[in-house]
Amino acid sequence: MGGFFFRETAGGFEAGIGGEILIEQRPGMPFLRAGRGTGKFEMYRGNFRITETIDEPLDPLDCSVAEALGDSARLIFSCGGEPRIAVSLREEEGRLVARFTDAPGAAGAQDHTFNRFRISLPGLESEHIYGCGEQFSHLDLKGRNFPLWTSEQGVGRNKATEITRLADLDGGSGGDYFWTFFPQTSFVSSTCYWCGLDTAAYAEFDFRSPGQTGLYAWALPSRLVMGAAETLADTVSDLSAWYGRQKALPDWCHDGVILGIQGGTKTCLEKLEKARAAGVPVAGIWAQDWQGINVTSFGQRLRWNWVWDQDRYPGLDKEIRALRGEGVRFLGYINPYVGAGMSLFKEAAAEGYLAKDSRGADYLVDFGEFDAGIVDLTNPRAFDWYKGVIKKNLIGFGLSGWMADFGEYLPTDAILYSGLSAVLAHNEWPALWARCNREAVDEAEREGLAAPDEILYFMRAGAAGSQRYCPMMWAGDQNVDWSEDDGLPSVIPAALSLGMSGHGLHHSDIGGYTTLYGMRRTKELFMRWTEQAALTALMRSHEGNRPADNWQFDSDAETLALLARMTRLHAALKPFLIHLETVNSERGLPLMRPVFLQHEDDEKAWAIKDEYLLGEDLLVAPV
């Protein structure tokens, strides 16, 4: 497409690559504004209320060109005649990269240091915007503002619904359209360019103005990266090359459904036999309670001590080996926290591996009628210790995978070993948790604890960089209902927006999870969700937080027959799915693709969020 260009104009400057103007300063649209503000974070069980007071308005900074060469430029942004911020522009590997630093001499102005920044980019009224991580309510983001902060996804996620109202009354957990486990400060434009802002701070991407896009951050970003291509598919491929790509899934994942079962060894074996007798191809059993349960008013929770519960699962070590011989893997559960008073908590506390509070005590987070400590992943010794827990207690025990849950609960007032502010560590925490899992698996393979490409773990929380560490995302805790913002329909825009953010492997809990405020999973919902899941990268069921209230895969013969039929379809697609995973790992094109990614000339395709293409040619339109 051609190389970097920079031109001074009467109203400022314009720069881009391949003849495409990607950033500019013009009258009425300054490239950079700066000011000061004070933010307040209130967290309750992973739900955040974030408020801000503007102490110094965000005013445009005066721009001067310090240097303009053929392949680069350097800009100085000043306030009151005083240089404050330097921005260097250049092409790097075919992309436009803007690097932000304090301007020379700006150190003398520390009493007036800016901590709020707004970057304005040119936009078109007719363009469509996608990405910003995993977005459940909206696929096309144009016309809306998106705060980007990792948190619980919220229950209901729509302030106009009764479920959300009830959840808001119950600890402020109702959420809104932008609440997400996996926010990412990047987007893709229908005009075939992508943009990524390197910042760990709280940010907002504002697409409400027809003629411009606003990127707002509570700290000076390190970089602004922009790429362009001839087609939208090539644009997404370039974005994924920047953020990292996923390997193909383990071969065994494609052989059937992974059944979510709880209740002990006997229950798992009985339900497995019932499923196989009905003709269901079973690739694995996922038993999240392998390490024990903790019953609360929310429902059945877990013990949060990542050690085999021999009382609940007697003989499981032997059964895992026997099941593997029958082609059935066994999967468990872990998260980056340790239950207060449990054996792993005591071990971590004794070694100083937990994040601290302001008094220097181990920080205890309320997870809903029980507390847990935060393994301080910024402490290299704690990081290595937790990798050891994964290698010994999960892989060494015989698990072929696990749900690597949570990652979004880091309190902003926690004190970390690294000295990094938890406000800045918060959004990066899920990627750090993903790296911990990735390194544990890689080391286990090198040490002979696991066969190569055997282990599957899946995550709900993510951040920029999770792409290279997390092999599979799942959509988190949907309601067991049909609601657009938080039920079965929401998993499609979630997968598609994540695919437009560089993570191409996604699935959801068959039947949903959250069973509250009178919601109960129906037979119809479970069957329709099963059909949709068959045409994704992975099929996995979940009993939900209140299993007795929900229709399950074995609740009647008709449901089992439907599950068998759809799982056989999924297994028959194995060569096709492996091919698509290879394309994703090599080109960064997701398995589940928005219709417009292959049909840019179809104007109607830009708004479709309830259908998708599996690869290039297979159209999936769930009912």
Q: What keywords describe this structure?
A:
623 residues, eight-stranded antiparallel beta sheet, six-stranded antiparallel beta sheet, 13 helices, globular
CA gyration radius, whole angstroms: 25 Å
Total strands: the figure is 32
Mean pLDDT: 96
Distance between the termini: 41 Å
Major beta sheet, strand line-up: 6-7-8-9-17-14-13-11
| Estimated structural class | alpha+beta
What is the tally of helical segments? 13
Q: Biggest sheet, in brief?
A: 8 strands, antiparallel
Q: Report low-confidence residues grouped into runs of 5 or more.
A: none
What is the molecular shape?
globular
Measured by DSSP, the beta-strand proportion falls in 25-35%
Oligomer classification: single chain
Helicity level:
10-25%
Structure write-up:
- The protein has 623 residues and is of the alpha+beta class.
- The model has no long low-confidence stretch (mean pLDDT 96).
- The strands form eight sheets. The chain has an eight-stranded antiparallel sheet. A six-stranded antiparallel sheet has the order 5-4-10-16-15-12, with no helix packed on it. It has a five-stranded parallel sheet with strand order 18-19-22-26-27, with helices on one face.
- The protein is globular and about 75 Å long.
- The chain is built from 13 helices and 32 strands.
Helices and strands, with pairings:
Blueprint: E1 4-9, E2 12-17, E3 20-25, E4 32-44, E5 47-60, E6 62-68, E7 72-79, E8 82-92, E9 95-102, E10 116-122, E11 129-133, E12 145-148, H1 162-169, E13 183-189, E14 193-198, E15 203-206, E16 212-217, E17 223-228, H2 232-243, E18 257-260, H3 265-277, E19 282-286, E20 293-296, E21 299-302, H4 316-325, E22 329-334, E23 337-339, H5 343-351, E24 364-366, E25 371-374, H6 380-395, E26 401-404, H7 422-425, H8 429-446, E27 456-459, E28 473-474, H9 491-499, E29 506-507, H10 523-534, H11 557-572, H12 574-587, E30 592-593, H13 595-598, E31 612-614, E32 618-620
Parallel strand pairs: 18-19, 19-22, 22-26, 26-27, 28-29
Antiparallel strand pairs: 1-2, 2-3, 4-5, 4-10, 6-7, 7-8, 8-9, 9-17, 10-16, 11-13, 12-15, 13-14, 14-17, 15-16, 20-21, 23-25, 24-25, 30-31, 31-32
